[in-house]
């Protein structure tokens, strides 16, 4: 039995007091196995020279503030990720027009008072983030309203948390069955933004000819509201009537294909390499900042739990079984190799 050598209390992300204990193992205790304990820290490379199987020092070509290496210990000879152009921000197709002249809040410097901040009122008269660890989302919401270009606050405002780019050291690595995958060298706390899903923002109907493109992300905030990735529905938390006009309300609620999507097939960022899991450690969050049209929301991936270093990053792709059809009109099936204890065995 371990000995308690230190204990303390601290405020948790949801505002509750958490009691923590530091334990010391006794002499003669049996060894722990990895299914009994989750290690807080893994062995990560300290320099480029220590990276095993390195095939690319930075897949971003210097676009991100933190380089993203790629490793391959599977293929012989080892190859680097190819067939795409890295782009850290969303590219908008020529026939897509983003809304302009969206009003902002009148706060100065930073938004601190939810009673006077117009953006906080859109979030249910509160701020969606806490300032801990550079900003963490308190809970998954239908839509998160962040401050935008017409707000009075600056870039350090807490309500711009997802707009600050990558802050964790990520790595793309090759797997035997799932192709490329992503992991972090750093500990990622629950509620922290990891990355945005970028690519070409386009009309969904314009992707009809791309039958084998597995990098298309449909922008469907209503699907995330219904519980994408196991999240419970919280439709009452945001001012939905302010963003869905009455004449479009029924259309948006229909089961039709979303009007817009993000195509990361030929252009995208680190998110295009993140795999599906039936028990993911990331979740999808729709975010509005530069405008308030949910059909064109930004797609962010947040940590659903505390993620230790070197654990693969995954999210639920949200496919329903037998919902994907091929060019011949027949149902397509794809096996799932996520390895989760309750894996559905099929991605779709």
From TrEMBL:
GO BP term, pick one: methylation
Keyword Cell membrane found: no
Localization annotation: Chromosome, Centromere; Nucleus
A GO molecular-function annotation: zinc ion binding
Keyword annotations from UniProtKB, A to Z: Chromosome, Methyltransferase, Nucleus, S-adenosyl-L-methionine, Transferase
Pfam family, one: Pre-SET
Name by which UniProt lists this protein: Histone-lysine N-methyltransferase, H3 lysine-9 specific SUVH4
Organism whose genome encodes this protein: Quercus lobata (Valley oak)
């Amino acid at each position: 039995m371990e000995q308690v050598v230190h204990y303390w209390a601290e405020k948790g992300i949801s505002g509750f007091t958490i009691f923590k204990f530091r334990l010391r193992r006794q002499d003669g205790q049996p060894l722990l196995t990895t299914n009994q304990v989750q290690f807080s820290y893994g062995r990560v490379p300290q320099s480029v020279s220590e990276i095993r199987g390195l095939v690319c020092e930075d897949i971003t070509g210097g676009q991100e503030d933190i380089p993203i290496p790629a490793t391959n210990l599977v293929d012989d000879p080892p190859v680097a990720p190819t067939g795409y152009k890295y782009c850290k921000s969303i590219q908008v197709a020529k026939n897509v027009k983003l809304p302009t002249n969206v009003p902002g809040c009148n706060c100065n410097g930073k938004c601190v008072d939810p009673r006077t901040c117009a953006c906080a009122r859109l979030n249910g008269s509160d701020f969606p983030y806490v300032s801990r660890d550079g900003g963490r989302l308190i809970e998954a919401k239908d839509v998160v309203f962040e401050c935008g270009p017409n707000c009075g606050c600056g870039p350090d405002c807490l309500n711009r948390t997802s707009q600050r780019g990558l802050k964790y050291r990520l790595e793309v690595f090759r797997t035997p069955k799932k192709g490329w995958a992503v992991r972090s060298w750093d500990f990622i706390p629950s509620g922290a933004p990891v990355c945005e899903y970028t690519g070409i923002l386009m009309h969904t109907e314009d992707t009809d000819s791309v039958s084998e493109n597995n990098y298309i992300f449909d922008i469907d905030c209503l699907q995330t509201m219904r519980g994408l990735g196991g999240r419970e529905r919280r439709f009452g938390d945001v001012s939905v009537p302010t963003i869905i006009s009455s004449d479009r309300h029924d259309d948006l609620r229909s089961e039709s294909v979303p009007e817009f999507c993000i195509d990361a097939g030929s252009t995208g960022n680190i998110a295009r390499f993140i795999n599906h899991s039936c028990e993911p450690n990331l979740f999808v969050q729709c975010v509005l900042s530069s405008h308030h049209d949910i059909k064109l929301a930004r797609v962010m991936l947040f940590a659903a739990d505390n993620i230790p270093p070197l654990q693969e990053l995954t999210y639920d792709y949200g496919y329903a079984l037998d919902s994907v059809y091929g060019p011949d009109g027949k149902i397509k099936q794809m096996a799932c190799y996520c390895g989760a204890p309750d894996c559905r065995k099929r991605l779709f």
